[in-house]
Structures are given as C-alpha cells and as structure tokens.
Amino acid sequence: MRRAVENKLKVAGALNNDMIGWANDARLDDTIRYSNAGIRDVQHAAAMQFSNLITYDALYYKSTDAAAYYEAYGDIVGGIGSYPVLGNPHYHQSHDLLEGINHQLVTEVSKTTAATLMLLASSPSRVKGLKIDSFTNGVASLSWAPSPEKGVAGYIVAYGTASKPDAQQLRVVKPSATLKGVATGTVVSVKGVNAKGLEGWDWARVKIASQ
Q1: Strand partners for 177
Q2: What is the DSSP string of the chain?
Q3: Are 137 and 57 in contact (CB under 8 A)?
Q4: Sign of the CA dihedral running 55, 76, 103, 82
Q5: Residue 183 neighbours by CB under 8 Å, 6+ apart
Q6: For the CA atoms of the chain, what is the radius of gyration?
Q7: 180 phi and psi angles, rounded to 5 deg
Q8: CA-closest candidate to residue 209, choices 127, 136, 151
Q9: Residue pair 68/1 in contact by the 8 Å Cβ criterion
Q10: What own/partner pairs with CB < 8 Å and gap ≥ 24 does 57-60 have?
C-alpha cells in the first residue's frame, strides 16, 4: 500500500482477504467486507459460479487493513474474511493456529478471488469525473473522463429516481450525453463497455441538482 501511494500508482480496485480459513461449523462460509458495492457483487457472483463458498457481506473496512486503501483512493475495496459476521474468536490473535484452519475453505476463497480478479482485470473500471455540465428546462448535459482501458467501445448511461436509478438507459460512444425530460433529483449512472461486451464492474453516479 505504501509503495502504491509513494509511486503515485493509479489503483482502480483492491481486494483485502484477511483471516479467511476459520469455520465455526461444517459450512464453507465467509464474509465479503467491502466499501465498493460493485466489487461486492462481483465477489458474490464469483463465489456462486466458481466455488462452493457461501458468502455474506458487510459494509466493514475501517478496522481492517483495507482502511488505508479507502483513505488513499476512496471506496474501491472488497475482500473476504471471517469477521465480523462470523465472529472469528481468533481474529488477529496469538491463538490463531494452523490446526484451526479449514483448508477446503481456503481453497474455495481462492477460487472466488481468482474469478473476481479475472473479471476486474478484464472489464472497464469505474469511470471518473462524471458531472452535470448544464441543466435547463428538463435537458441535462453531462460528461466524464474517457475510460483509461484499451478497447472501451462505449458507455451505458442509466437514469431515474433514487429508488429506481436504472429505469431508463441509453448507449453512447463518446464520454458525454444529453438527457431530455429529466427532473431535479434524477440520479444518473454511467459505466464503460468494452469491445467484447463486458460492462464495467461499478457505476459512477451523480444527481441532477437545480440550477
């Protein structure tokens, strides 16, 4: 983490696996601790499709090693561990011993992590710089920074109310769009799509405010 910050590396997402091998019963279960809901959803999908792991989730990172990533780069963190949902009594304690580790559980977490990394590395990261450039008489013009990944073919723009932000969608090629017939409070979400059809793993969002 220190090297990433010192070398001014651009980090789009991070996984922080910690204390993954403790099992309180025969179930192969662990908790996704996250600050980024997009990474959380990818990890759930990876667990279901490529492993026998049972996953819970918790918006929990401030007391973990992942907090440093959040402080430096924002809400880009996911990862798997046996705390807080499972309440691992050995969490970072001297009595966390090898004989208490379920190696099949470690294997399933490894499968989930590998699948997650493959998807994150193969699809566009969350776009940056999304903003409303103008909003007049129900017409909103917005723009964002182009996706840095090679092969990004366009963008999905979704918009709607806070309870249903993806009610309407359109696709654009350039990093800008014009929305008509929208109201103050409309939530606009954008993500990239590459030439293979893989969509970005998280949305960038902004809310239309009155001007």
Answers
A1: 142
A2: -HHHHHTT-----EE--BS----SSSS-EEEEE-S-HHHHHHHHHHHHHH---EEEEE---TTSTTHHHHHHH-S-EE-EES-SSS--TTTTSTT--GGG--HHHHHHHHHHHHHHHHHHHHSPPPP---EEEEEETTEEEEE-PPP-STTEEEEEEEEEETTEEEEEEEEESSSEEEEES--TT-EEEEEEEETT-PBPSS-EEEE----
A3: no
A4: negative
A5: 138, 208
A6: 20
A7: -110, 150
A8: 136
A9: yes
A10: 57/31, 57/32, 57/33, 58/31, 58/32, 58/33, 58/34, 58/84, 58/85, 59/33, 59/34, 59/35, 60/31, 60/33, 60/34, 60/84
Q: What is the pTM of this model?
A: 0.85
Say if residues 185 and 207 touch (Cβ distance below 8 Å): yes
Q: Are 14 and 113 in contact (CB under 8 A)?
A: no
Calculated CA dihedral for residues 29, 114, 61, 7, nearest 10 degrees: 160
Residues found in the chain: 211
pLDDT tens, position by position, 12-69: 899 999 889 998 888 999 999 999 999 999 999 999 999 999 999 999 887 777 888 8
Token output for 21:
């091998």
